[in-house]
Structure formats: structure tokens, C-alpha cells
Amino acid sequence: MAILLLALCSLPALAAPRIGVVTMQPGEIFFERFGHNAIVVDDPAGAGPISYNFGYFDMDEPGFFPRFIRGDMRYMLVALPLADDLAYYDEVGRGVAIQWLDLDPGSATALAAALAVNARPENARYRYDYFTDNCSTRVRDAIDRALGGALQRQLRPRSQGNTYRSEAVRLASPAWWMWLGFDLGLGPAADRPNSLWEDAFVPMRLAAALRDARRADGRPLVAEEVEILPHRIAPEPAGSARPWWPWLLAGSAIAVGLAWLGRRRPSTVAGLALPFWGTAGLASILMLFLWIFTEHCFAWANHNLLLLSPLCLGLLPGAWRIARGRDGGRTFRQLLWVVAGSAALAAFLAWLPALPQRNGHWIALLLPLHVAFAWALTPGGPNPADWRRGP
Questions:
Q1: Using an 8 Å Cβ cutoff, are 366 and 279 in contact?
Q2: Residues 6+ apart with CB under 8 A from 239
Q3: H or E stretch covering 96
Q4: How confident is the model at residue 128 (pLDDT cuts 50, 70, 90)?
Q5: How confident is the model at residue 2 (pLDDT cuts 50, 70, 90)?
Q6: Is the pLDDT of residue 37 over 70?
Q7: CA-CA 20 to 30 A from 129: which of 3, 31, 69, 280?
């Protein structure tokens, strides 16, 4: 009888599923740059390991692209056999590793049941956010709930100084247009130092955090880590600080050249200013759109609007007149110095300690250019009489 009772008591432990976090390394396509992850449930009573993947979306659903532009995307949780989930990563050469977690049988069983309910069609969809609610944060939150909040308590007080901007720019760096879009398009909200909890929006950061996490009894949370697929393409970009002084040297050198040329060939300088101001104006329209008309909250109140100002579009007619050998007009000369002054204001805001934006390199590059264009295209320098007379 005693042996029978012991056997019966051990059945729940034997039947408890194994829980793992599988992490996929970054790929070469732009939407794969941030890597990926999922939760694996290996139930002894099941047919094989199941991957619970929060990264699926349906481009054919009504209104997908308008919602994508507005920042109101809908992603979904999909449960599928782990082998099926890994087939694509094997094909494209992306490395995959799995961390088997040391969870109590009751916690593992409850997590598996919660994921199964979450994967039902009526529960699977969620509102996606690049930084705060994505495939990796959903994995993080599910593991944290299984641990009774212990993961968050360990990660929230610690930081490596990363920000949403630094991580986005780092991971997007192989594609120049992608890191450029992140760096110019993100506002000051993306520059607050993240805790390790917030860093976990990056799957590889979550894997590193799990590797160091501990259970309540002090044992490591990760019982075993296994490489499933080798990584056969370019590795994850390393983080590095971006010095501002090369940008300042480049901006200053170009500015000196513009100032020198402006006193001799102002029409040539105006011709160079036309594409610069046109590009700046179009970039500012996009930044304003993200701020005013979308829910991409990390793009709001972007200080780069002071460096790439919509006022640049107002300079185009005057620059065109000067390029054709005519006078730009008093309004044009006034607006030149307003644009230069707004760039100087961006430098002042970056110096303030309250919600600064890490755009010092852009200030170092663009502020000298705005001042140089203003000086080169204002004969004899700024004329205070223009301001008194008006246009």
C-alpha cells in the first residue's frame, strides 16, 4: 500500500511538461533583424514538443497595411510542432538554441494550460508594439507569471544602460536605411535607459537574462541550454558607442567649404542647398506624420524636427531664385537664420537633463551646415535691417 501511494503521488510530477524558451538568431531580411523566440512545451503525453509562437501576423486581413502605418498592428499566438517552426530557420541558416527551464511541476503545468487557452482563435490576437509588446515580451511575461513575478523582480532593478534606440540601431545596422530610419525617426522617449526587464524586448537579451536568473530557492532557472541549429550567416551586431566628433569634423569641413564657396559662387551653393532642404523637408513631414497621426509613441516629440525642419521647404523658392542668378529676397534670408536657430535650439535641448534625446551626432553634423548655408546665402552676413523692415 505504501509503495502504491508513493507511485500515485509521483504521477503528477512525471506527467508535468517540460518548458523551454527557444531563441532564433537575427536573419538577413529587414523584419528578421531583431531575432525571434517562442515558448516550447514538451508534454510527455503529447505527440512531440509544441512551439507557442507570438510572432505571426496575417497580411491578408482587412486593413492590415493602414493599421501597420498607424502603429495599430495585430499579431497572434500560434501553436505548432517545434519541428515545423524550426524548418524555416534551418533553411536560411539562422541559429537556434533552447533553454529548458527548471520550473516546479505545478507551474509548468499551469503555464502549458494557459498557453493552450491563449492560442485559441478567440484569444490569440494582441496589439503589437515594437518595443513594449512583441513576441519576446510576451514570452518574458508568460515565464514571469509562471514564476509568480520573480523574473521581473530580478530584472527590473538592473540595467546595462541600453535604450530602445541603441538596441534598434544596433540590430538594424547591417541595413543602412533601416538604422537611419530608427535613428532619425525615434524621439526622446526611446532614449531612457532600459532595465534588463525592458531590454528583454530583444530575444537574445531575454535569453541572456534567463541564463542568469534564479529560482526562489537559489537554483538556476535554466536547467539546460542546447544548440538546436548552428548559425551560418552573419552574427548579431555588437553594441558600440557612437562618437560624435567624426560627425562634427565632417559637418565643419563641409560648412567651411560652403562658406568659402558662397562668397564666390552663391548660385552653386544654392544649387547644393536645394536637394538638402528638399530631403530635410520630406523627412520632417514623415516625422510629423508619425507624431500627429500615428500611435508610434516612441516617435513623438522628435527633436530631430529642429534639425530637419519643415521650414526647409519654405527655403526652396529662394534657393531656386539664387541658383538662377536672382536675389533670394528678405523673407528667404530671414527664414535661413530661423532654420539655423532651430538647429541651435536642438543642441540646447540635448544639453538639458530633462528628457534629452541622444542625437548629438546629428546636431554635430547638421548644425554647422545650416549655419554655413545661412551665412553663404546672406550677402554680407545677416542683415538686422531685414528683420525691422519685414518681408
A1: no
A2: 162, 166, 167, 170
A3: strand 96-101
A4: very high
A5: low
A6: yes
A7: 280
Per residue in 310-348, is it b (16+ CB within 10 Å) or e — as a string? bbbebbbebbebbbeeeebebebbbbbbebbebbeebbe
Residue 46, pLDDT score: 86
In this structure, are residues 324 and 360 in contact, taking their beta carbons and an 8 Å threshold?
no
- DSSP strand pairing (96-101 vs 50-56): unpaired
Helices 245-262 + 360-376 axis angle, to 10: 10
Alpha-carbon span 390 to 291, nearest angstrom = 32
Torsion of CA 58, 63, 68, 74, to 10 degrees: -50
CB 33 within 8 A of CB 172: yes
| Reported pTM | 0.89
pLDDT band at 233; cut points 50, 70, 90: very high
Q: How many CB atoms lie within 10 A of CB 66?
A: 9
> What is the amino acid identity at position 141?
D
- Cell numbers for 358, please give them: 541622444
pLDDT on residue 59: 85
